[in-house]
Amino acid sequence: MRWACLLFPELALDAVLRRHPSPDAPLALVTGPAHRRVLYAVNTSAAALGLRSGMSVTAAQAVTTTCMLTEYDEEATARCRRLLAAWAYRFSSLVSTDLADAIVLEVAQSLMLFGPWPRFEAKLREELTDLGFRHRIVVAPNAHAARTLANLHDGLGVDDHAMERALGQVHVESSGLDVDVATTFARMGLRRLRQVFALPRDTIARRFPRTVLAHLDALRGADNTPLTCYQPPDWFDEKIDFDHEVELSTALLFPLRRLTSDLGVYLSGRDGGVERFVLRFEHEFVPATQIVVGLLAPERNPNTLFDLARGRLEQAPIAAPVRGMRLIARELPAFVPASRDLFDMRAQQAMPWEQLRERLRARLGDDAVHGVSMQLDHRPELAWSDTAPEKTTAAALADLRPAWLLERAIPWRGPAPLILAGPERIESGWWDSGDVRRDYYIVESAAGQRVWVYSPPNEVGPFMIHGWFA
């Protein structure tokens, strides 16, 4: 087996920055009790101003007043780990979050699908960067070794023969051992793991807790204790809390894009789609505003989901300034991509009909977009009816019927047309007091337009225009 460790050294900070409209601005996470507030983490811009982790908030404010201070949210960090696990589940069925600050996944079988490791690694890095997470990636024969080597290296790949030597170079302080145990080894003059590996096992068992020997065995692949494998949940529920009230709907588009992007990642990981999701906008003093986004067919493309949600947001009134946004998706059916021809002749920028249909519904309203269903009636004005967009059954009748049928026939004006085909007698409706007796012709006007006209039976004119051919 080959395990890839994806280490996220600044996950708590990335959880905030990826949802921040200005991620390069100075920002620090704050934690601790009210009487002892300290900086939990700082971004690069804040560090350039002289701030550092562990500094008190009072000292930080004395150094600079331009740094934004945000409360450290442990639950938000945990949600990001679950999102990353759902994303990694796309690439392997064996994904685990057991190891601190990291996601590990078995990649030996995945190489047959995603190509050799360098190509696979490049794909992982590209997608993690797009998601907004800084990372290190190491691949090794077992998960624990990969996690330990990720403390010191990025991009390292070792096999069974090189793993022992690579682990031997690791300092005991960076090996994942308990701090007190690592300090004791250092005081004994054992500063690297190769020196610890050389100790007799019974000596380690007598002088240290049993967890030490278990950890060393896990690093070398001798401990076969299985990791807990991740299983994606049956629904998606994510939220973003704002530090201040947001009054403009345009300011909600950036967090909305991030939420729909995360929903797309989750859906891709479980190989499913979404048919309905809910946006909840939380306010300070009034009940939350809820917007339901319904789709006619399952979808999981993040850009499509964002366009649909944005269209609904632009049409819906927001009751009050927004303090938080939440996206809930529980109707997650299987996703079947639309069939495409092997040699698709459509332009690259052309939008598939399914996406165009959903975008029109979001912008114009559910009742503004409908399909056409054939009815068993010879009268043209009664031969079709509105139906749901996905249930259209009307078939084109080649050149026999026009694409555009007028709601009410109008008299022909101008020179006499050239008759191309006809007459076609339509006589029907005597049973419902809508009796119709007409002779239909396909004619061509002086301007070259093809028109569908009719006249009374056995008379060539005067013509009434009933439809236009495309």
Ends apart, CA distance between termini: 62 Å
Low-confidence stretches: none
What is the spatial order of strands in the main beta sheet?
14-18-17-16-15
Shape: elongated
Binned, the helix content reads 25-40%
User: How many helical stretches?
Assistant: 15
3D architecture notes:
The protein has 15 helices and 18 strands. It is α+β, with helices and mostly antiparallel strands. Strand 9 and strand 10 (289-299) form a beta hairpin. Helix 1 crosses helix 4, helix 4 crosses helix 13 and helix 14 (302-315) packs parallel to helix 15 (353-364). The two termini are 62 Å apart.
Write a concise keyword list for the protein shown above.
470 residues; 18 strands; alpha+beta; four-stranded antiparallel β-sheet; five-stranded antiparallel β-sheet; 31% helix
Task: Summarize, please.
By secondary structure, the chain is of the alpha+beta class.
How are the secondary structure elements laid out?
Elements: E1 3-7, H1 11-17, E2 27-31, E3 38-42, H2 44-48, H3 57-63, E4 68-71, H4 74-88, E5 95-96, E6 102-106, H5 111-114, H6 117-131, E7 136-140, H7 143-149, H8 160-168, H9 179-187, H10 193-197, H11 201-207, H12 210-220, E8 236-246, H13 253-269, E9 274-282, E10 289-299, H14 302-315, E11 322-331, H15 353-364, E12 371-374, E13 384-387, E14 404-411, E15 418-428, E16 436-444, E17 450-455, E18 464-468
Parallel strand pairs: 2-4
Antiparallel strand pairs: 1-6, 1-7, 2-3, 5-6, 8-11, 9-10, 9-11, 12-13, 14-18, 15-16, 16-17, 17-18
Helix pairs in contact: 1-4, 4-13, 7-12, 13-14, 14-15
